[in-house]
Amino acid sequence: MNDIFDLKGKTAIITGASSGLGRHFAKTLSAAGANVVICARRIQNLEELKKEIDGEVLVLPLDVTSEESVLDFYSEVKKTVGSADILINNAGTSDPKRFKDLDEQSWNYVLETNLNGAYRVAKNFTDSLIEDKKPGSIINIASILGLRVGLNLASYATAKAGLVQLTKSMALELARSNIRVNAIAPGYILTEINDDFFATEEGQSYIKNIPMKRLGLESDLDGVLLLLSSDASAFMTGSIIPVDGGHLINPL
Ligand code: NAD
Which pick of 33, 52, 164, 206 has the fewest CB atoms within 10 Å? Predict the structure, then answer.
C-alpha cells in the first residue's frame, strides 16, 4: 500500500527551499524517492541543504519576482533534467502592517512574490509539460489566510486568496492536459523564523485559538505533501487542503 506514495523516478522542483517549509519539503520528497531541484535566492543555504540530502539534488538560483530569473531557471532545468514532474510552489513572504500603514511598496512586494511569482513559476512549468505532452502535479503553498482573514495581513491574505483561486482556475483548464493543481493551506507551523515570536505572550495567545491547542510541526505537512505529489491523489485536482489543527473551524 505504501507504494502509492512512491516518487522514485520523479523530479520535483521546490521553490523557496533555502529555509523553513521549503527546506523540509525538499527533504521529505527526496526521502520518498524523488530527485529534487532546490531553488531560491540564497544559494549558500541551498548548498548546505544539498549536503543533508542523500538522493539526487540540483541547486539553482531563482528569484520568483523576476521574469528573467524564472526563464533562466527553466532553461537550466530543461537542459539538465528535462521537464520536471512535480512543482512545489512554496516561495513566499509577508510584511505585516496595519491597513492604515500600508504603502504601495509593501503591498506590491507581497503580491509580487506570493501571487505573481507563484503564477510565473507555475505558468512556465505547465508550458514545458504541455510542450512535452507530460502529466504533472502542482502544489501551491497557500495559507489559512487565503480562506479567512487576520489582523495586519491584508496584503498576505489577499495574495494567498488569489493563489487559492489561481489553483482552482488552473486545475479546471489543465485537467485535460493531465496536469493536476492543488493547494495546501497550512495553519501556523513552527519554523526557525517564527519560533521566537510564538514563544512570546502574544504568540502564545495565537495558539489558544487553535482547537488542537498547538502549533503545527513541519512534519505535520508530510502526509498531504506526499499525497498530492504522488499517484495516490490521481483523481484529485482543484483541492485546497487545510492542515491547521482545526484553526479554520474555530467558533465564530
Ligand atoms: P520562510 O521565510 O522560511 O520561507 C520562504 C522561502 O521563500 C525562503 O526560502 C525565501 O528565501 C523564499 N523566497 C522569498 N522570496 C523569494 C523570491 N523572490 N524568490 C525566490 N524565493 C523567495 O517561511 P516559511 O514559513 O517556510 O514559508 C514557506 C511558505 O509557506 C510561504 O509561501 C508561506 O506563505 C507559507 N506558509 C507558511 C506558514 C507557517 O506558519 N510557517 C503558514 C502558512 C503558509
Answer: 52
